[in-house]
Amino acid sequence: MATPDHLFSLRNNFYLGAYQAAINNSDVPNLSQEDSIERDSLVYRSYIALGSYQLVISEIDSSAPTALQAVKLLASYLCGPEQKENTISSLKEWLGDSAIGNNPVLRLIAGIIFMHEQDYNEALKHTNTGGTMELHALNVQIFLKMYRSDFAEKQLKIMQQIDEDHTLTQLANAWLNLAVGGSKIQEAYLIFQDFSEKYPMTGLILNGKAVCCMHMGHFDEAESLLLEALNKDAKDAETLANLIVCSLHLGKQSSRYLSQLKLSHPDHMLVKRTSADEESFDRALQTVA
Fold first, then answer.
1. CB under 8 Å to 141, separation ≥6 — which residues?
2. Half-sphere exposure (Cβ direction) of 192: Cα atoms closer than 13 Å
3. In whole angstroms, what is the distance from residue 281 CA to residue 149 CA?
4. Which one of 114, 190, 268, 278 has the fewest CB atoms closer than 10 angstroms to its CB?
C-alpha cells in the first residue's frame, strides 16, 4: 500500500491560492524530516504570497535547511528593488555550489526570480531538467511567457504521464488552453469550474474563470467573478489588472482600479505599459503645442 500523503491538502491550498488556509491548516502531526521541510517551505511561501516578506526574512535563520534559505531569498527579492541585486548575486553563488546547487526548491526559486526578471533563458537553465511537479509547471509558465506553446505542451505531456489528475497538471492544462485560444478556452473554463466545485473559491480560481469569460466575450460574467475576487483580496494584482481590462470592454471607468494597481503593485506590467503610453502621449502633445 502507498504511504498516505500528509501534505496533500496543504499543497492543494497553496497551488489554488488559498494561502491563509494553507497556513492555518499546516499543523500536520508525525511528519518525516523531509516532509517537515516541505511543509515549512509551503507555509513560508504562503506568507510571501500574502505579502508578509519581513516575517519570512526574520523567521528563517542561517542554520535553516537549503530549501528554506531559498524561500528566504525569494522574500528578500520581492521585498523591494534595493534588495534585488544582492539577492540575485547570492542566488547565483548558491546555484554554483555543487553541494546545494541542485536542490529542487533552490532551482524552483531561481526559476521564479529569473522569470520575474524576464530572463527566461537563465530561468530554464535551472528548471528545465524538472524533477518535481512544481518545476514542470513552472516550465510551462516560462515557455508560455516566451510564446512557445509547443514547448509548453511537451512539458504538460510529461506532467500528464506522471499524474494526469494532479492539481498542477490541471492548472498547466488550463494555462496552455488559454494561450492557444479558440475552442480551447471552453476547456480551460471547465477546468476552473471543476476546481470551483471541488474546493473553496479562491482569487486564483475566480480570475481563471473570469479570463476565460473575457476570451469568450462574456464580460458581464467576468466582471461579477472579478468583483467577488476583489472582495477576497482588494490588493491582488491580477484581479485589479483583469478588472481594468474588463471595465474597458464594458465601457466603464477603470481609473480607480488602475490607481489601486499603481499604489500596491507599481512594477506590474500593466502599470509600466500605461505609464509608457502616457509619456508617449505627453511627448506627442508637446510636439503639437
1. 115, 175
2. 25
3. 34
4. 278
* Orientation of helix 104-116 relative to helix 81-95, angle to 10°: 140
Estimate the crossing angle of helix 255-264 against helix 269-288, to 10 degrees: 120
255: DSSP letter:
H
Q: What distance in Å separates the CA atoms of residue 267 and residue 47, rounded to the nearest whole number?
A: 20
Mean pLDDT score across all residues of the chain: 91
Q: Give residue-wise pLDDT tens across range 138-188.
A: 999 999 999 999 999 999 999 999 999 999 999 999 999 999 999 999 999
CB 105 within 8 A of CB 113: no
Give me the amino acid identity at 117: E
d(C-alpha 68, C-alpha 46), whole Å: 13
Say how far apart CA 212 and CA 209 lie, in whole Å: 5
For the stretch 104-139, pLDDT in tens is 999 999 999 999 999 999 999 999 998 999 999 999
Q: Grid coordinates in use for 127?
A: 528548471
Tally of residues, the chain: 289
Q: Which of 280, 243, 278, 246 is CA-nearest to residue 258?
A: 243
Q: What one-character-per-residue DSSP string does 97-152 give?
A: -TTTTT-HHHHHHHHHHHHHTT-HHHHHHHHTT--SHHHHHHHHHHHHHTT-HHHH
Tell me what the mean pLDDT of segment 99-105 comes to. 93
Cell numbers placing 196: 470551483
Q: Is the CA virtual torsion 27, 109, 151, 237 positive or negative?
A: positive
* Sequence letter at residue 49: A
Whole-number Å distance between alpha carbons of 72 and 62: 10
